[in-house]
Batch of 4 targets.
Target 1
Amino acid sequence: MFRIAAEELRLMARTRAAWIGVIALILLSAVAAATAAAHSAREMTARLESQAASDQAFERQPDRHPHRVVHSGTYVHRPVSPLAAFEPGVDPFTGTTLFLEGHRQNSATFGAMRESSGLIRFGQLTPAFVLQALAPLLLIFLGFSTVTRERETGALRQLWLHGARPTQVLGGKAIALGGVALVALAPAMIALTIAGASAPAEATSAGLIALAYFTYLAIWVLIVVAVSALSRSSRGALIALVAVWSVAVVLVPRGAAAFAARAEQTPIRVETDLLLAQEARQIGDSHNPDDPFFAAFRARTLAQYGVDRVEDLPVNYRGLVSAEGEALTSGLFTRYAERTAERQREQSRWMQFASVLSPALAVRQSSMAGAATDLENHVRFLEQAEAFRFDLIQRLNRLHADEVRAEDDAGRSRDAGAELRTRVTADNWAHMPDFRFRPATPQERVTAMAPGLAVLFGWLLAALGLVALSARRLQEDAQ
């Protein structure tokens, strides 16, 4: 078996096309790793600096009315995952920045795909993309004739006469092609190791991602050898393998995405905003303390403090109404956001089902989950940003209720002195918490990777079964 593998490698080494293909893929993978790492580092620095600038701008506001601060808002930026340099996942398609303000839940903005031309949507040059799409092509063009060549030249019959068994022949061919796969895998794995080494917590995820891609390329090695053994001619093997690659790497992922989007349609932002505005009108206007929708809240508040009139409350009723209105609208925002997130999760589940038809989808799902660049990471950011927004606005509403006198608040539009007295000191802004995103833990990432890894191992078993079938066919031919 190993002599056959050595002879196959020697033949590849004498072939100029093999050298060109391997070197080209190595260089492409190295360039992809270098450019992706540089882009990820720049993006990480830019977002950290933007977050620091946003926090600083918020804290440096002058003395202001708390409700003015509610509407001036602040920005939060999603941090870059350390492994995003290897697998950017959905990050380029989703927004990275959120503007947080009272009474509204804004969409994330500044997604790379949204801000770029449509041409970038055909695929980014990243180590993950090179391994998912281009490495299998190299294995196909180097290995499509690995067995058919022996049959066409008559060398296969000579191997039978020397006592070689079909399993030994196929095993040797697979070992040789697997060696090429390891060489092709090396630059991307080096990039993954460097990215994982930058954060010790990423070691487990980086190791599992490496295992996923090793399994993925092993699947392609076995498929190439098996199809070459089952085909009667090199031309037929090449056509069959290119067809398999086209279906598995191009058609199924694109078709599954289109089907998922149609099966679980998400409403457009304008439609959602209109529905939100319609339901928000039914809640009432929290800027108007006399709004009839808040009559029950007024009665509860008066009973809570044991007074008969709003003027007798020890706190500013306008601030209490703002806090109640924010709680009601935030609950409304959360319901709509959860509904949208659930539909997106359903789309993701359809993609997981489709991975049974494509190992490329399975390895991509595992890779994104391990790198924390999948849909769940984006939803986690949105949920944490909304929780931070609600807490921040309610702290400001509390200041409004406790630090601003009701008489001054009611007369500030007519009395310049009252308007000045409604401004709380700027020290309050510095005491507000800063946003800190909490990514998925290593254990959560392992759990998220499990379905994709399971599908990959299933594909590996199926590929081994195909090799066994081709070995049986060769055995029949030898007899």
Target 2
Amino acid sequence: MSWAGDGLIAQLRRPPGGRDARTMLLAQCVDRTGTGVWAAASVLYFTFVSGLDARRLGLLLGAGAVAGIAGSPLAGRAAERFPVRGLLIGCHLLRLGTMGLLLVADDFATLLPVVALTCLGERAAKTLEMLFATRAAGEQRATYQALSRSVANAGYAVGAGIAAIGLGVGTTNAYRALILADALSFVLAAALVWRTREPAGHGLVVAQGQGRAPDAPDVPDAPSYAPSPWRDRGYLLFVLLDIPMNLDDSVLNVGLPLWLVHHTSAPHAVVPAFLVVNTVLVVVLQLRISARVEGPRGAAAAVGWYGVTFSACCLVPATATGGGAWPASLAMLAAAMLVTLAELMRSVSSWELAVSLAPPRARASYLGVAGMAQSVQKSVGPLLLTGAVMTAGPAGWLVLGAGVTGLSLVQRRAGLRRLATLSAPRESVTAAGGPTGRR
């Protein structure tokens, strides 16, 4: 790929999709900066300002995670009927409204739907950004995804830095200022999205004149038949297997910090370094790793490498229970590096396979269902780490690594099989002298 040797800054100036893609990347950076502010401050805000105890806080965050699961398929379904650009602006404005309500909501019954709507809008917005990139970047979507990941992580880091200032002040007004900062990011992001143009395939994602049902009447302007992802067992298998392929997120944010605190002699100050290591590696390496994933089959191969790297990450904390502070600190930082490498491969493979394994004429609804994998993992992943792995000790890490590695091989094989099935009809049409063949 010609872009593989270009620097990050050069790629951001000339991303696949041109001016609109560049504006959308800027909107994502602004959005993620605000999200980073709220992510770093939300738990403390609900504890010290809203006065929630641990039980109600857990219920609140759990409800938000469940609502996030619904956000992806709802966004995909809506994108088959309405322009992606308008829907994305709507998601930003929805979250602007819910952030404003947080400033006046002071009881659990009110906070519950507010947080649920916020998480639903956030997950829907990410799915719509994925659809926008799929249309705008086309076959160069892997490049766009790499740039998007780098920009998003930089935004999260800036947002966490801003939150640190407010948390250092620690007053109620400081917490509310952080909420306003998050709300401002949604205003700016919506304004930037407004400046873009709807990418090719305005409105409906369903391609006209393709994939007509066998018994449909031959009417020139009749809408084409679009398959449902909920009836596609092959694609649902991909989405199901993609859930454990996202466990690197919970390992980095939940598993490694808890293990360091309770099972090693490393100082607690090492925990923030996990985020620093993750952010730096994503910004520096995402483009390079994406350059090595060539097309759908390369993405399927990357799933296998994800399992191997994830297993290596799990092996490190399993053997880092003894020794002094320095060896334990270095071991845990090495685990953070390995899980970040796994994340880099997963981000490319999941993205590419979610697009490639979906029928083009119904890609919006399919990608909406695929987006559920991350949301489900965010709901069950922390429970798996805290309830099973932490309880089982070093053996829990070994079982987790072996299990994910085995499932990654199943995902790789299933992906290659489906790719072969999808390419078979096109090859038969070409051989028969179809549109791409000779008559």
Target 3
Amino acid sequence: MSSPEVLDVVGVGFGPANLALAIAIEEHNETCAEHERVRAVFVERQESFGWHPGMLLDGATMQIAFPKDLVTFRNPRSGFTFFNYLYERDRLVDFVNHQTFFPTRHEFHDYLSWAADRVDADVRFGTSVTDITQDGDVLTVRCDDGTVVRTRNVSVGAGLTQRVPEWASLSARCFHNHDFLPRMAELPKPTHGRFVVLGAGQSAAEVVQYLHGHYPHAEVHSVFTRYGYSPADDSPYANRIFDPSAVDELHRAPALERERLIALHRSTNYSVVDIELIEELYRAEYAERVSGHRRLFMRRASTIDGVVETADGIEVTIRDSIDGIADTLDCDALVLATGFRPAPLRPLLGELAPEDGGPRVVTRDYRLLATPEADTAGAPGVYLQGGTETTHGITSSLLSNVAIRSGEILNSIVARRAGGAVLARVDTGSTGAATRAETDKARRERPASTFAVSEAR
């Protein structure tokens, strides 16, 4: 069905990023005049809210502190804080006694689900957006159920796409760790008592630990190209790369300096493992060396040369890159903990997005421009909730900055609807032609509000 109403924003996807935006909109609408209310609809292909359910491993903890929830950095008085969730779940005192900043992934998923159930938002679950086109100053959003929605802006929270090696063919025995738990539940009965995990990051190490603990008679081979797991740098100064103010600094920095800083601090998030998990795995491996009964094998400086599926398993050939020796293992499954990449935008946005693989022109308020010249008054906004690492920094697809980003996007939508002045600077030296945009409202000193944006931590 088609509606003549023109909405203020349509959210594509309803993961944590657009959930945070929905909360910011609700809190804005509760305090503004009727004519200033923001009208929004969210479209989510899943049948219900879920956040990486395939990796909700027992005991796995979050890598970010709980105050980096959906709202706290934007509005610590919000009813959607993690603290309020604990209070309503009657666990606040118990959590404080636990003396940790890092809840389990299970608990944080429950927090996100609690917030998704609580927020006053129009969410169309079980529906996918098929394409978005522009007609003057309005965007037309078409869905696979025949729904057509008109809007001034879209907030694209399409998430990430699994990165799969070219040689891999996904199957019941060869799968990405993102689908780990459901794939393991459907795995044919193990016959070889052996698993291989490819990857050197946190997810790879967690899968190795899970398989080693849940299959006490099976071998687990961890394959990675480096010499050993590298610890994540979560020291206080390094963690400043995740500060809200770092987005301002990186976006306005010269392109080469931004690239240098992002590369320098990749050890805060990419292909690294919490030191506690590294030590647990090392203790397990060492204990097996002492006992002489080996089940855990760290295949350092190694690659996978080939994979062949058989009637009752999968043959995996592992090559040691140092001495060139290769051996083939009969396995029950190969888990690809090989990371993610930003979801391609061209299939969804068409001419509103640059060619896939081309530079993304993204303004400071997260608006994607098909060309640097497309930032004209009255033009509809395509806001990116992810896929902006090259222009905004490492927090692009992480939870660390989700609260602040949602407030900035909402402020931009409200200011541009009202014809607010936009101050822009085009960094012509940027591969992404980074444009700095700040509304007058965001620049002047404001009283506290339910959607005020912090400009520095």
Target 4
Amino acid sequence: MVASMGMEQANHIRRYCDDNVAHFDWMEAQGVPFERSYYPDKAVFILSTEGLMSTGNEKVWPFRDIATPVPRGHQVQMAGESPGAGAMTPLLARCEEEGVRASHDSIATALIVDEAGGVAGVAIRQTGQDRYYRARRGVVIATGGFGVNREMLARYFPGLPDTAEPLGTPYTDGSGILLGTAAGAATSGMDGMIATASIYPPGQLIKGIIVNTLGQRFVAEDSYHGRTASFIMEQPGQRAFLIVDADIFAYPEITTAHHELIDGFETVEEMEARLELPSGSLARTMASYNRHAAQGRDPLFNKHPDWLKPLDKGPWAAFDISFNRSNYLYITLGGLKITSDAQVLDGKGAVIPGLYAAGACTAHIPRCGKSYASGMSLGPGSYFGRVAGRVAMGNSAPLSGAAGA
């Protein structure tokens, strides 16, 4: 596992895991609220305030055989679709209390590099004027990914359909990545993406099956929505269909995904013909699935027994969940290459003195949608941002041994 992911990623994971409890405690100490409650159902996001939930592939095979499934997602105690604001408001208040100065209405235009190749400051443009700031300890880039940068998207994702939309702010334009590379920084994982147009909630739809244009299943339907999307992107024509029976029929609740209900069908054969699948393919797939589901098994993909049931109660229905026909939202996962101390590396693997980076402008810990889980942008972003500040100030000690920093 370490060899396949690279020592760099392994070091990031190890440090993040070792320090995560201390980091959680620190977040609470800054006033970020977390409710001691549990959300048991499967969801993409929740509008209530429960603080703990499963937000990835915890119960999905083969991961559940590698590590004991436990809920790993922590949501800030704030109802609504943007709980991140519940974290930023107290954190910004703490910055103000500590006298942190901010320069607003500014755009960074270049990093200032000294004769030794280190980053000594930053050039900005503010209200039409160029200004230059010398860095006392270092420069930290924390500018987000490149989801709205059309040139970068065309380079790294040339087949991205027009129906796909970036998830994030209008400023995820790759500017921080470009600032870093102009100063000699290396990048990693630039072809990585997490996309989503989830079929759930409601969770009952997970009991259906997902097939491609060959009438074949290709993923465990209880996978995290980003993992499912990554497999759909690999199918012929990027096409996929969700098949359900009368027992579990429902419309996907995330209506922005625009999964089209193709139709209802009295027979599987009628559905197969309407979807233009090879003759007999869907009937064989469903017969095999139903036979094993009745035994509580899924030998093909080991779908969790919680989501297994024979799809034998007609009529049946099919939704088009194709990557190029539904409205998939995406986050880019590649960015500046950093050490576990958040120091930016150059093309030869050497640290660029005075330059640090954190968040979605850096290469994520998971670099493809198949291994992504909700929170793997916000969590590491807040953690390595804090690491960057500490290391720039000369303190690289583990956070688990730190007090208040």
